[in-house]
Write a structure and sequence with these properties.
- The complex is a heterodimer of chains A (573) and B (442).
- Chain A is built from 21 helices and four strands.
- The longest helix of chain A has 38 residues.
- With 442 residues, chain B is α/β, with parallel strands linked by helices.
- Chain B has three domains: 247 residues, P-loop containing nucleotide triphosphate hydrolases (Rossmann fold, 3-Layer(aba) Sandwich), CATH 3.40.50.300; 66 residues, Winged helix-like DNA-binding domain superfamily/Winged helix DNA-binding domain (Arc Repressor Mutant, subunit A, Orthogonal Bundle), CATH 1.10.10; 79 residues.
- In chain B, strands 5-6-7-3-8-9 form a six-stranded mixed β-sheet, with helices on both faces.
- In chain B, a hairpin with a 4-residue loop joins strand 8 and strand 9.
- The relative contact order of chain B is 0.09.
- The chains are: A mainly alpha (573), B alpha/beta (442).
């Protein structure tokens, strides 16, 4: 047996039979990746072309897909690192824990696209002559859309480490590093993985919006699938739209098969369970990697590196501990943060002082409109997803057909469909008022559907049999068994959907298409319009109002409902 | 004189509540662990056994007092605990689990492999190096736990209920192997400190037994077990040790000295002014026990527990509740029915509730308080905050919660009052005039 230290790397590239053909395949993949990197570097360091002309030829699609995927994954990797760092800091520093978690709650409620003008302008002025600036801008925006739930997941995982496991690490004197790689990271892997999948799906949603947008009088267009679809829709080119959608579905399915499925199979070993479960995930790609010599070599090198780091920290442990950050320094840092916050706050107030009372009132009125729209979308979504979800959950045969279909449908980011749906609606004579509700629906109904299916599946068959034995009629069955049974899941789905709908309102209420702006009164439209027109005071105001509303609704409606669901309607195994 | 390995000097543990009240978990106590001993720590749940173990191992800091390891306050590197839940890392193989503490000490790979192999050899697990914990049975997992502890060659091997997650036969097997390894000096450790709630286990293993009392945690008795190994659990001497511990545990207010085997009945320790604490028992459990006990005569607690297959932690609270309500009388480790208890046991379910109701209002302070408060309020509703505040002065936050839960349970069973979890308040349910309130809850 070779060195068998760091779990993460070593387990991925476990030691099995090797195979030359597989090695060649792995080598080819690496070589292709290398070529892609060179192409990318040349593009990023090239002169800034803020508005690339987008070809509608299907042959351009692989290239566009490549650029989109790179954007998405660079943002995802940043999110992953940030989430781990943030969650780790919050869980291990009781003094700032509450501040960090409250901050996370608020950051989560700020609509991503409100960051767009600020982030973009900052990045462009940072790299005025390189394409890199705009690219980093769009990456950062996607980052803000996917990072928070991952950070929260990692934090919760760390807080739920069983007491005795933590004590074992303590009594055997693990260094902070060893504790991290052997206990904390492995314990958080599964939560991080599932949240990564949700985050990347959310990333697609914003990617579509971040590739093509207007900022003041400047037009931005980055090569990618999102701009391809928007251009195709703008030109009314149905063939190109279909090609674009097909390419996107292929990419999403490939990512699922090449990345997420193997990772899920691999993460089985991090399940914290005492007995081996019967249903293990197996995966072709993971099997191939485990048999590849090259992958094994990489795995061993990573292992060797981890081992060195661990032993280094173990050696350091015996030296006198370095003086903790001096209280003076901590105070200075605290004061600096306070001053900076105060300064930014004053600036913001200054910016807001230009807003008239009339505009304040108007903003609140618009917020009410959007609130109605969001809840309308949730209501419509619930009306069809609850019966459908329960039917799928109760009938295994139906589930086998419907679930994969629903998964594919759900994987297509709603923003990709926006231009197409809007085009169709306009042709039929509907306005954006109705269309915007439909657009919110597109993005959020799946959260409810999948949660309802999970809830219906979790209702124990004994409970259903009780209904049969006592001849419950349909109404009674729904009232006594089904609705209470799915309630916790439904609440979870609605919370996610509500957050998604608020975020979607920014795109749904204000849309550029075929050189025209379609808009309907609402808070989302105000944010988009302000960002288009460069009215930063209005942008700040409406963003503040939206965050405040989202936070209030979470605290006043969803959290009590969630607690009720947890306490009263949780079906315990 | 044996060398003292670990010494606790006036250590205590308390929590400060937000309103500056002090909840004492462990009263100041002194304790030393000497070379060559197996020390067992016994006590009812809530007596702070685990807290004491965690303070001795440096996992938790005492609120006052100090712990000396070989005379020094700095805890050494080679401490080790065998945990109740095994606490193995499921994503590491058996060998990686055992090597982890060595890695933490900066030991290089070849030496780690050598030492972990030796430790696994000692516990009889060679050949399982590449297995993952979830592929192993409970007994084998705990062997890995032992190997991981032994690999650091601890001066004192700490064990926190190491056998209680195992089935009876596996536990017996592992226990006897540990005694054997210890007797043959195969264990690289100079003393063993085991926390347990199983009296028989303590008498089987230990050279010395410490019994903790609760509310607050304190040492009730600390005595040597001088039987030779291996011990016969049927021998009269063995049984008299077991009986002695039972007597100490069932009479929480008595001076343990007077309970010594063949001791004379002496004056009881003056009653301590502690707040009455509800044992966390369901009325159904108590009723079940009362119906099983013979109407006349005394039953030996040790035998009773054995017959019912219950552990000390399970049966003591039930006995305590029975005594508190006046259904049972406990004397010298024996338990008997009172007249009231007999009437309760032979009554039908509605009369049982009646007896329980009267006994609870009369004898149980918290039930009495809730009952009176509800009677005096118009509408017969009182928020639970009111009682939380009352209990806060005597118990930790968690204990307050458990006290309330138990009170709610008892109140519901006796139909004295009910609790609305949504509104968080107690109330007296409206009587239904036509219907007999004959429900079979509990």
């Amino acid at each position: 047996m070779s060195l068998r230290l760091p779990v993460l790397a070593q387990s991925f590239f476990g030691e099995r039979r090797r195979n030359l053909g597989i090695d060649l395949a792995v080598f080819a993949v690496i070589f292709a990746g290398f070529y892609g990197m060179i192409a990318l570097t040349r593009y990023w360091w090239g002169a800034a072309v803020p508005s690339v002309s987008i070809s509608r030829s299907p042959w351009a699609l692989p290239g566009y897909a490549f650029y989109s995927v790179v954007r998405l994954f660079v943002a995802y990797l940043l999110s992953l690192l940030f989430a781990i760092g943030y969650g780790y800091t919050a869980a291990n520093h009781p003094r700032i824990e509450r501040i960090l978690i409250a901050l996370l709650d608020i950051l989560q409620s700020i609509p991503v696209l409100s960051f767009l003008p600020g982030v973009m302008l900052a990045m462009i002025s940072l790299f005025p002559s390189r394409q890199l600036g705009v690219e980093i801008g769009s990456i950062l925006l996607i980052f803000t859309g996917q990072v928070w739930n991952m950070a929260f997941s990692f934090y919760t995982s760390l807080k739920s480490i069983p007491r005795e496991l933590g004590e074992a690490a303590g009594v055997y004197r693990f260094s902070a590093w060893q504790r991290f790689v052997q206990l904390e990271l492995p314990f958080g892997v599964i939560g991080l993985l599932w949240n990564s999948m949700v985050s990347v799906a959310g990333g697609w949603f914003f990617l579509m919006a971040c590739e093509m947008f207007v900022l003041g009088n400047r037009d931005f267009r980055l090569p990618g699938l999102g701009s391809y679809l928007q251009t195709a829709a703008g030109a009314g080119d149905v063939g190109a739209i279909l090609w674009g959608l097909a390419a996107m579905i292929v990419v999403i399915v490939l990512i699922d098969q090449i990345l997420w499925r193997p990772l899920i199979a691999w993460s089985d070993k991090f399940k914290f369970e005492q007995v081996e479960s019967t249903a293990e995930h197996s995966n072709l790609v993971l099997g191939i990697l485990r048999r590849s010599r090259l992958a094994a070599w990489i795995g061993d090198s990573v292992d060797g590196f981890f081992e060195k780091v661990t032993l280094h920290f173990a050696g350091r442990r015996n030296e006198p501990a370095p003086a903790a950050t001096s209280p003076l320094l901590a105070w200075l840092a605290g004061i600096a943060i306070l001053l900076a916050t105060g300064y930014a706050g004053l600036q913001a107030v200054g910016l807001l002082s230009g807003v008239t009372a009339h505009e304040w009132l108007a903003t609140l009125g618009l917020a009410t409109l959007t609130l109605l729209r969001v809840n309308g979308a949730l209501l419509i979504a619930s009306l069809w997803t609850i019966p459908a979800g329960v039917a799928i959950g109760f009938h295994p045969k139906l589930a086998r057909v419907a679930q994969p279909l629903a998964q594919i449908a759900a994987s297509v980011p709603a923003t990709a469909l926006f231009p197409i749906v809007l085009l169709a609606l306009i042709r039929m004579g509907g306005g954006l008022g109705i269309a915007s509700i439909l657009l919110m629906l597109l993005g959020t109904q799946w959260y409810i559907l999948f949660n309802v299916i999970a809830g219906a599946l979790a209702i124990p068959s004994e409970l259903k049999e009780v209904g049969g034995v006592f001849h419950f009629n349909r109404l009674l069955t729904w009232r006594v068994i089904i609705l209470p049974g799915i309630f916790p899941y439904l609440v979870t789905g609605l919370i996610t959907a509500s957050g998604g709908a608020w975020n979607a309102s920014i795109i749904a209420e204000y849309f550029h298409l075929q050189g025209r702006i379609f808009t309907t009164p609402g808070l989302g439209a105000q944010i988009s319009g302000a960002s288009d027109a460069g009215r930063f005071d209005v942008l700040l105001l409406s963003t503040l109002v939206m965050s405040a509303m989202v936070v209030c609704i979470n605290r006043l409606v969803w959290r009590p409902l969630y607690r009720l669901a947890e306490n009263r309607y949780r079906l315990e195994a | 004189m044996q060398q003292i390995l670990i010494q606790a000097v006036a250590v205590e543990k308390f929590y400060q509540t937000p309103d500056e009240k002090r909840i004492q978990v462990i009263a100041p106590l002194d304790l030393s662990i000497c070379e060559g001993q197996i020390v067992a720590l016994l006590g009812p749940s809530g007596s702070g056994k685990s807290t004491l173990l965690r303070m001795l191992t440096g996992l938790s800091q005492p609120s006052a007092g100090k712990i000396l390891h070989n005379g020094k306050e700095q805890p050494p590197d080679n401490l080790a605990i065998v945990f109740q839940s095994f606490a193995l890392f499921p994503w590491l193989t058996v060998q990686q689990n055992v090597e982890a503490p060595l890695e933490a000490r900066g030991v290089a790979a070849p030496e780690r492999a050598e030492r972990s192999r030796k430790a696994l050899d000692t516990v009889g697990l060679d050949g399982f190096e590449a297995a993952y914990p979830k592929e192993l049975s409970g007994g084998m997992k705990q062997r890995v736990g032992f190997a991981r502890a032994l690999v650091v060659e601890p001066e004192v091997l700490f064990m926190d209920e190491p056998f209680s997650a195992l089935d009876v036969l596996t536990a017996e097997n592992l226990r006897s192997q540990v005694t054997e390894l210890w007797a043959n000096k195969k264990l690289p450790t100079q003393a063993i400190f085991i926390v347990t709630h199983n009296i028989e286990e303590a008498v089987l293993l230990a050279d010395r037994i410490i019994v903790l009392g609760k509310n607050p945690g304190r040492i009730r008795t600390d005595f040597a077990v001088t039987l030779p190994q291996p011990r016969d659990r049927k021998a009269p001497a063995f049984l008299s040790y077991v009986d002695y511990v039972y007597r100490v545990l069932t009479q929480p207010d008595a001076e343990p000295g007077v309970l010594q085997p063949a001791g004379l009945p002496g004056a009881a320790e003056p009653a301590r002014h502690t707040h009455q604490m509800l044992p966390h028992v369901r009325p159904g459990g108590l009723a079940g026990l009362l119906e099983m006990l013979p109407d006349e005569g005394q039953t030996d607690l040790y035998r009773l527990a054995g017959d019912l297959g219950l552990e000390l932690d399970d049966i003591l609270p039930i006995i305590e509740a029975g005594a508190m309500l006046g259904f049972l009388s406990v004397k010298e480790g024996d338990v008997g029915m009172t007249g009231l208890g007999r009437r309760f046991a032979n009554a039908d379910i509605l009369s049982q509730k009646q007896y329980f109701r009267e006994a609870a209002v009369k004898n149980v302070a918290l039930i009495n308080q809730i009952q009176r408060a509800l009677q005096s309020k118009p509408g017969h509703r009182v928020s639970d905050e009111f009682f939380r505040d009352l209990l806060d002065e005597h118990f930790s936050e968690e204990e307050v919660q458990r006290q309330l839960e138990t009170a709610i349970n008892w109140g519901r069973y006796s139909e004295l009052f009910d609790y609305d979890a949504g509104q968080k308040r107690f109330f007296i349910p409206e009587p239904e005039p036509d219907e007999e309130p004959a429900r079979l809850d509990e």
